Amino acid sequence: xxxxxxxxxxxGGGTRLWPMSRIETPKQxxxxxxxxxxxxxxxxxxxxxxxPENIYVVTGRAYxxxxxxxxxxxxxxxxxxxxxxxESGPAxxxxxxxxxxxxPLATIAMLTADHHIADKEAFRDVLRAAYEVAQQxxxxxxxxxxxxxxxxxxxxxxxxxxxxxxxxxxxxxxxFTEKPDTQTAVRFIxxxxxxxxxxxxxxxxxxxxxxIQRQKPEWYTLLQELEPxxxxxxxxxxxxxxxxxxSKVSLDVAIMEHAEDMAVIPVDIGWSDVGTWDAxxxxxxxxxxxxxxxxxxxxxxxxDTRNTLVYSDKLTVTIGIEDVIVIETKDVxxxxxxxxxxxxxxxxxxxxxxxxDSYL
Length: 360
Known about the structure:
This protein is an alpha/beta fold. It has helices at 38-44, 64-70, 88-102, 120-134, 182-191, 205-215, 217-223, 233-245, 251-254, 344-353; strands at residues 4-9, 55-60, 79-82, 107-112, 116-117, 139-144, 155-165, 168-177, 194-204, 262-267, 271-272, 292-294, 300-303, 309-311, 316-319, 324-328, 333-337. Helix 3 (88-102) crosses helix 6 (205-215) and helix 6 packs across helix 7.
């Protein structure tokens, strides 16, 4: 496959995984599941489909050095650095503009840095299929087969089947619904017509820029000012000007919700966004009582404990507990019921409001 590039979006904060995920060590830099950081795993699973020189990373200034250390084979010039966070829309637009200026024939797989994918071979296979579909000037999104009526994900509605590519069925997309309520999510699941939005998109750079020009013409005009060489003072000066002007909005809202020529490929690749502590239960190896353990120390004494997650580097003892999350860091101990893990984000907001910045 010629002119095929992976773009890893690596700027998120992961506040629902506090207190492990912090401003200085966000989710993508943590070894939450495997021995390496989630970003390093995201890079590793692209081989051999993408050589290092065809992998790009977009991230914030605070994280670029750590990400480079985790992926030393990726050329330094392939790290596209945002002046500061403005959500996924501007980050994606900036990256597409840089890659397209370097290779006008580029096709880009826009991927995530902090999601878990168990079946890595199937993941590479579907990216190959998506590349072929993208050559028809279609925007391809990977739809995840939903297991529960989650209200934490966006949903994609499938339309007519348009073919089979590389063994994968390809459908028209009939639009996105962002994080529905429980009743709506149940209806979506029962219909069989919906997939979760994985946040992964495959498209030609020219198609991406055409959509940006159609839907965000002010972004398109600004991005035309960029130089392809991101190592020059002229680039930095121009980017700072762009970033002062460009609006803060997610890629889904800015482009994807109203994109034309959208295709969806439903896949079952063992995907999880690992968005909350409770979500870790879906991907960790559990003991016979449904307990999961992470941390540097193997020492633990577990008595009458079920469906509990313990993340600690110390000897941990649990007695007679069930459905509990226990997370210990050097300065925080968090104990949370499994049904309340979505509330962790609210704790982070409370810390901000009460000037406890040292814990963020």
